[in-house]
């Protein structure tokens, strides 16, 4: 038996989680990343910074988010008691805002007047535009043309919030290309611009700081579980795009050996079809967007196009900490396809009156299989990372309904 | 002595500066590249930077992004690029060739295999844009042992301490990125470049090539007054894009731009 790693000691000084992570960017950005890391390491242990962060989470975001026992759904599934961590009730409708609040505070401390962000589903773009509006910062959001079409409600929300949405027409016109374009902007405007990355990917220190900001999800859930269920949960389930909502839930539980964890990737049309977004399930390690991680790539190392009904999971990479947690066997990574996610979306809406985001529906789809294999005295927590309002047009399209 | 070192020494004795053109291999098809390389040498190129196409060229502007897309469309892989260099070497054993690109295709091939393939193809140097010295401490020796130079970027934002560290990891030459931005971006400020190059010279013992923002004979000439080499990319790739439908016109068009730069630099 190998010794259990000290999870809190990761990443190491250079941002590595085992062989994953790191800082693979062009030279121009190295100084900016050093500066960000120095600032973050200083502020992270500054009680005033933590107090400001906690204040915003409580009074602006509306935390803590409830841990809700989905009684009717649990009964229907016939197994574990299923609890939903209600990130959908946050201001702006998803977990993304936990992170943008934190990064906006960093931007403020660093005196940056302009923020940029990449977005897929638009939730991170909305969350970035929201904090920018509140702090009076200029905000540019990069978004793939394909996603602009799929998520036009969020595009309009960002515009109402005063952000400029910049369509990205290169490559596959989705999240990865938006991230490329945001990096290009950052290289060009590095002096006055703060890049708010929306997930636990990107170069060090982003995977670390986004994880830390999102860990409020798991800290709350742990406390709530002890209080409401009287014990720690038996299993955690979260969807994995870049992996920020999943790591946020998982991280505070990593040392609790009895807690099983499942990260659910998007299987799109099915992992066997090649049309999916499941790098941990079907990819291999490589380097993209500043870190080494599992990627979807062809034999010659070109990144391949992903497919998922949910724009927020349509990404060929994944946060490096997940790659590490997969390899050391602490977290199980599984996949749910478009059909399973849509079925779970409809089911939760009808049975609990909660309409989940299509991203979160992937986690629900797996929970639906897992819960019946567990016993009635066991508890399962699903991260309901966001609400489904933004996806109504997508689902209506699938149903053949036009407005 | 490596081809790159020999090249700079020879230029030094004749009081000239290196003209270093960049094109993306396989743009717009795989047959064009080697003839264009020869044409560039005839037009006065001293070192060739051959771009390895990548699906996500994060440090490149729209011109080279499109070149990558065309090259990938024509099916160009890292193996193909290596084969092009081998073919180029059949007629040219003197001009150094540097592969420039992103890390992932190399990761996919494996460092050991790639370094061996560089040697057998006749590649002299490798510049991986998203591989800073911190992340390649164990990789540097594998290239060193084989006599393949690892070339690194230095940016306007690079601190003195990092310039020193980069100078230790690098061999062949240093590539100074003249501006904050992506390839093909706005014009460079020659005075600023001159003062930065001076700083770099004091911290590292390698020839310095300057790239990004060199568009025409005038900017090539200005930069050649302060640096050891002038790297030109987007201005050439624009010629390839403009003639993508008439590929026989590409070599002369690229050569014409370079010849202009060469004579302006040698004036
Ligand atoms: C509601 C929701 N859940 C999940 C995700 C996926 O991101 P991550 O894996 O970083 O949590 C997104 C991304 O847009 C989202 O909007």
Automatic annotation (TrEMBL), chain B:
<dbReference type="InterPro" id="IPR018204">
    <property type="entry name" value="Trp_synthase_alpha_AS"/>
</dbReference>
<keyword id="KW-0822">Tryptophan biosynthesis</keyword>
<dbReference type="GO" id="GO:0005829">
    <property type="term" value="C:cytosol"/>
</dbReference>
<comment type="subunit">
    <text>Tetramer of two alpha and two beta chains.</text>
</comment>
<dbReference type="InterPro" id="IPR002028">
    <property type="entry name" value="Trp_synthase_suA"/>
</dbReference>
<feature type="active site" description="Proton acceptor">
    <location>
        <position position="49"/>
    </location>
</feature>
<dbReference type="InterPro" id="IPR013785">
    <property type="entry name" value="Aldolase_TIM"/>
</dbReference>
<comment type="pathway">
    <text>Amino-acid biosynthesis; L-tryptophan biosynthesis; L-tryptophan from chorismate: step 5/5.</text>
</comment>
<comment type="similarity">
    <text>Belongs to the TrpA family.</text>
</comment>
<keyword id="KW-0028">Amino-acid biosynthesis</keyword>
<dbReference type="GO" id="GO:0004834">
    <property type="term" value="F:tryptophan synthase activity"/>
</dbReference>
<keyword id="KW-0057">Aromatic amino acid biosynthesis</keyword>
<dbReference type="Pfam" id="PF00290">
    <property type="entry name" value="Trp_syntA"/>
</dbReference>
<protein>
    <recommendedName>
        <fullName>Tryptophan synthase alpha chain</fullName>
        <ecNumber>4.2.1.20</ecNumber>
    </recommendedName>
</protein>
<keyword id="KW-0456">Lyase</keyword>
<comment type="function">
    <text>The alpha subunit is responsible for the aldol cleavage of indoleglycerol phosphate to indole and glyceraldehyde 3-phosphate.</text>
</comment>
<dbReference type="InterPro" id="IPR011060">
    <property type="entry name" value="RibuloseP-bd_barrel"/>
</dbReference>
<feature type="active site" description="Proton acceptor">
    <location>
        <position position="60"/>
    </location>
</feature>
